[in-house]
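Student:
Attend to each token:
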Amino acid sequence: MSIDPRDLKLTDDPVQQNEVFLAAFNTGDGAVFDSLYRDDAISNLSGSPLTGAERTRVITEFLAQKPRLNAKFLNAYTAGDTLLIFVEYDMEVPQPDGDPVHMRGICTDVLRRGEDGNWLMVIDRPVAEEEYA
């Protein structure tokens, strides 16, 4: 499935939503990626739980480094308007010295279905299992 990052569409399908999330992340545009979050959402992308303007600032600064993310959908559980999704991720983050940092792990995300039926991120919790060369 190919998602056009210039025309991201939220979806009610958890697997497709993962593809939308990847496309938004890999644009390197913090505003595009942050648009997938509810205003009150929490992201642990920095290693600390952040919300609001601080979350947006940190996401924008991080994505400006042009990291590349790959993720494999593992499973999802739905309870009413709440979705728990598990993905296995692999990320490469460029560093100023030219040697990228590679991280992989499991991300547990909680999404909430909006009035339009589409999912928005409520909690984004990537947990790195290891860094590798």
